[in-house]
């Protein structure tokens, strides 16, 4: 479907909007019906894992493909592993529980030095998933504290029941694991995860540079030799490529600093020049923003805002030149209208109204900067690096995400301008539109101001409700926007 509201003539809806301005409850209920219709039209269904697998074009490779990355050859496995496999063969009569124990014995023999195999089938560390076995560097898992960004690779087990390998559903499950690793380990190029039933071993891989998937199936003994070779040849297919610990210079007085080590626990998000991770700070959950740019300016803005006790703004705990430690730990709304509730619209709008009263302009309102404090069901607006406080009347350099820029900024072709509340309010309307209509997220061939204007004119001008919101933003009519947001339901 098109994602438009149900068919209502523009003049009629304009009358409804006029009644809304007069705060007529009957008309507000009428608009709620229209909003619910829009919700139904824009929900995105999650495909089953087997269908996700079948949609991907896999390159069929042999095990040599993975060895070529380190110019290695297929090595032998330790003698005790070979003896165990020979003396304890897997058959179709072997139960799933026996397969799990069998693999535990095999992987225990394979663990050596710093590389360890851990049975994780009761530990939902992988975004809620519990892979059967996970391979780590022992230094990355103090007290067996498993994290996605620390796992080197994964081995999933299945009871042997097919003479030709594995089903699409089983491979789809492995695909879920692989995609989580790809999302969480941003600097890693190569990935490989494994699936076995003790007879066959299947490899699913991904190369970030080429954006291509590969797959390979071989007999179990060859597969175990491959895993062993890749791990102990330090292959990129089975190795994380960034440290999970960073050094942080902490200010302990006006003249003294100390160096503390921070363990990264989970990747939360990224921007053009920064990444955000979940950490523990003084025994409490927190997030750290790590940037190649100096974050001192953003830290100062957050400190200024903290004086006024804003509830929808990150609280700064510590900072140095390239790092910000903040709370609460937040998550993306993930285009889920069940998470993005009517109250969140009001929270964001009221936050903008309040910061504007202090002559603060965020200048980068967009969906990826709208986060959810899940513990308190609270919207949090992040990324204050483009914000300005009490700007002069002289034009300043434009900063922000061009796709969500206001009409006046687009008309000025992103040139120098004087920030004003309507700029943030226009970005608010455009952000809310995409949050409510995730399938409409702009993917433009051109980043020109004209292309962006054409997109928003096409999306908003023909929809009376959104046209009214655009007009309210242009005229800085926050009260009207509040009334409209009050009727949004999920």
Automatic annotation (TrEMBL):
A Pfam family assignment: DUF6826
UniProt-listed SUPFAM superfamilies: Protein kinase-like (PK-like)
Molecular-function GO terms, alphabetical: ATP binding; protein serine/threonine kinase activity
List of residues binding ATP: 289
Keyword Nucleotide-binding in record: yes
Example GO biological process: mitotic DNA damage checkpoint signaling
Superkingdom of origin organism: Eukaryota
Entry keyword set: ATP-binding, Nucleotide-binding
One GO cellular component term noted in the UniProt record for this chain: nucleus
InterPro entries: DUF6826, Kinase-like_dom_sf, Prot_kinase_dom, Protein_kinase_ATP_BS, Tyr_kinase_AS
Domain Protein kinase: 262-490
PANTHER family: OVARIAN-SPECIFIC SERINE/THREONINE-PROTEIN KINASE LOK-RELATED (PTHR44167), SERINE_THREONINE-PROTEIN KINASE CHK2 (PTHR44167:SF24)
Name of the protein described by the UniProt record: Protein kinase domain-containing protein
Annotated organism of origin: Rhizophagus clarus
